[in-house]
Amino acid sequence: MRRARAWRDRHALTALFGLALVCGLAAFVSPPPPLPHARAASSPEAVARLEVRLGFGGVVKIGVPLPLEVVLPPLAVSGPAEMVVDTPALGPQAGQVVTTTAVPFVSVADTVRVIRAPVVISDPRRPVTVRVTVRGREVLGTTVALSPEHVGGRVVVALSDDRTGLAALHRLPGPVVVAYVTAEALPRRWQEYAAVDLLVIRDLDPAALDVAQQEALLRWVRLGGRLLLVARSAAAAGSTETAGSPGGRAPVFPAYLDPLLPADVGPIRALPSAAGLAERYGGTSPSGPLTVAALRPRAGAGHLDLSGVPVIASGGPGSGQGQVTIWGFDPWRPPLIGWNGRLPLWDNALGSEPAPGVDVEGLAEHLAAGTPLDPTVHARVFGAILLYLALLLGLRRWKPTVAGAAGALLIVLAALGAFPMLAEVVRDRSATLAQVTIIEPAIGTGSARATTVAAVAVPYGGRYRVTAVPAEMLAEPLTPASDLRIVLGALGSELTGVLRSGDPPRPFLAVGAIPLSASAVLSRDGRSLAVDLGALRATHVELRWRDRLYPLADLPAGRTVHELRPDGWIAAASSGGSSSEWSGRVARAIFQGSGADAILNGAAPVLAGEVDGVAPVFTLGGARALGQRLTVLLVPLERR
User: Fold this and answer.
1) Starting from the edge strand earliest in sequence, which strands make up the sheet with 309-315, in order?
2) Which fold has domain 152-350?
3) pLDDT, tens digit, for every residue of 475-525?
4) pLDDT tens digits, residue range 28-80?
5) Does domain 46-149 have CATH number 2.60.40.10?
6) Do residues 502 and 146 lie in contact, with contact meaning Cβ atoms separated by under 8 Å?
């Protein structure tokens, strides 16, 4: 009898041990539930009540941030609310990849609201869904379908009262799509101009743009945008005499554009013909006289003259990395409206497609390859499993009784509660984040473009939460991702999603601007370098020019002057000046990637260095450490 009881106890303990092992490991490795998918619009009545304005007059470009404006009618209820935008992306299976952007706000009953958010269209074949919820209940919803003719390879946005005359631009390479808009359609975030290849301003009320729109326009131009201003003869003739303006005339363009202008607008002149334009751009010479506003080019600006009168001015030091052009004639009016040389003229204003400064996708791949796990995570998991097994085996060996079986059961129950908590801790602690920020100053503007590429890895699978600050940094995923939700807040963006075990790291991109005055001037003979880093200090500084570099070691804040030796240039492949192996690998991705070739193959070298003390853009929720990060300063060199 006693032997049979011992046999039953041993087998009971063995069964409990197996059950505990299976339950504990199942609780440990079970994946978290996926994020909820978007719901459909609540009713046809709700669909008809939302007014959605996407892109520029409905014109969009694939893969870049676009302005989205939603006008909400007066709602019947007040309380915490949220506008949710579901944008489909191209993925392995159609209809499976949707990125959700949410904007929280407070609903006030019987009040019209305008909610704005940047969105990225990756799959124009499927509609964009917009929903509004109040206190967790969906009250409004609609869908926005995209027309194929409104998807442009290159986009020209025109502010003009005359909404004709540019139809022929679709024959230019691109293809080129023209969008006629009003001033209220211009973005309030400079990043939302990413879809615009050329902004044409022909008719603009100086008071039509609010402060946010003015700042966004100026920053976009200074960081690489192209702006064309048409000085209409009627506007120039109607300007009044005002002290302080060149020639005593009031400016034709709004005052906030004055720092960008390559020329001032002078008096109206009647030229006998426009034959000079045909000689420059081709086509048959326009017949009849040409009325122009004579331009007065500013220092450093280029210009084109007709009969000794400047009629085209471009460049100038105030535009930074961008291009500002003024036409002293109106291409919407005779004799230029029927001129067959208009296309080369517009093609020159549109310019060539700019090459990307940094290959962000290639850089993200290098970040993904360098996200090491925290070794303490494995040690704690291994210790917890050993303790669990030791307790069960100890009870089975030293107390093979009913009481021992009851103790084993208690251990099993404790493990069922502890192992899921341990699994959550392991997922959080194993998640890693690596990021690189590229800072590119726009010379003479006091601003710099900041591009941050990050990669988050969750090796054991699980939910992640990444925050991007400040709010001026516009964050987006670099690759299509289902179950991704972006919440735009007043302090920044929060990106949440799920990575399953075995999924590759998920890359993100954030683009913004920071105040920075930095410059590097190389003498004409190439033997002297003057550097001014402002308040920054840089380490491992070097000049890079094609496949050669010149080490400069560390540079302090402020202005320094360096003498360059002709034999100081070395091969870039032999450089070992980075602060770590990871930093060196990232530097090679920056300077040897396909996008960086545009920098290295230019006519002037670039000053590059690592910058400390810059706050990280992305932070990973639940992570104790900031992860690997690097800030690289790239200053284009001037030749004087």
Assistant:
1) 176-181, 154-159, 198-201, 226-230, 323-327, 309-315, 301-306
2) Rossmann fold (3.40.50)
3) 999 887 777 999 999 999 999 998 888 888 999 999 999 999 999 999 988
4) 444 444 444 434 333 433 444 899 999 999 999 999 999 999 999 999 899 99
5) yes
6) no
